[in-house]
Design brief:
Blueprint lengths: L1 H4 L10 E6 L4 E5 L5 E2 H8 L4 H20 L2 E2 L8 E3 L5 E3 L6 E2 L7 E5 L5 H4 L7 H16 L9 H10 L12 H10 L17 H6 L27 E5 L2
Antiparallel strand pairs: 1-2, 3-5, 4-7, 5-6, 8-9
Helix pairs in contact: 3-5, 5-7
């Protein structure tokens, strides 16, 4: 984590300035994210309007595209690992599951259950396209308020992920452009997922988060610093697939 994050320089990636340790702990010196986790903002608002969600997805995609060009796979995209600075700019954080993989494909099952891609669930090799899938899950959760394949049963969650059938709540009336972007990211075939380099030119992004659009801070209902609060923990997974 330290080795990878210390070499990343991007406006939407949390900066790691240094580290030190004692006999029991390792301390990281990180960029200050005044507004805390995106998850807490989402919990407060339940779900985001398309303008706000599109700006966040656009900026996370830029951060991930940069990582992929550096041969880094994050492997744990979720609202809890996205922080906000004082201006509500996204900062990709927590590279604990990340890996530098310039040539090899991976077989480790890891991450957060609701965000796992079909290839991990099926136990086959995966590459950077796992982040594209997780970005699609994130987009859905920001707009709907929960992940698309969420279920009380872990087994059923795995089944729904492998099926990849996305259902959009009719009463939310999500735009056709938003639904198209999510479906293209949540393609069960990793090779056919929307390329992150092409995402900024997708109709949904151009409509709701064009290059000249204001920062998400102007769309926030709260100007105060996010404080720590209790929240339910999501199921995380780690398993070496043989």
């Amino acid at each position: 984590e330290i080795e990878i994050q210390s070499h990343l320089r991007h406006p939407n990636i949390l900066r790691l300035y240094g580290w030190f340790y004692d006999e029991h702990r390792v301390f990281l010196i990180l960029e200050y994210a005044a507004r805390g986790e995106l998850y807490k903002q989402l919990q407060k608002e339940k779900r985001f309007k398309e303008e706000k969600a599109a700006r966040y997805i656009r900026d996370v995609a830029k951060a991930l595209h940069y990582c992929h060009k550096k041969h880094v796979i994050h492997r744990d995209i979720k609202p809890e690992n996205l922080l906000l600075d004082m201006n509500n700019n996204i900062k990709l954080a927590d590279f604990g599951w990340s890996v530098h993989a310039p040539s090899t494909r991976r077989k480790t099952l890891c991450g957060t259950l609701d965000y796992l891609p079909p290839e991990m669930v099926s136990g086959v090799e995966h590459d950077q396209a796992v982040d594209n899938w997780s970005l699609g899950i994130l987009a859905y959760e920001l707009l709907v308020g929960k992940p698309p394949f969420e279920h009380q049963s872990t087994k059923r969650t795995y089944q729904k992920i492998k099926e990849g059938k996305v259902i959009f709540p009719a009463h939310l009336r999500l735009s056709p452009e938003a639904q198209d972007l999510i479906k293209r990211l949540l393609n069960v075939d990793p090779e056919k997922r929307l390329n992150l380099g092409d995402l900024p030119s997708h109709p949904w992004i151009l409509k709701y988060a064009p290059p000249s659009s204001p920062s998400p801070s102007s769309l926030s209902s709260s100007k105060s610093v996010v404080k720590s609060s209790s929240r339910p923990l999501r199921t995380t997974v780690q398993q070496k697939v043989v």
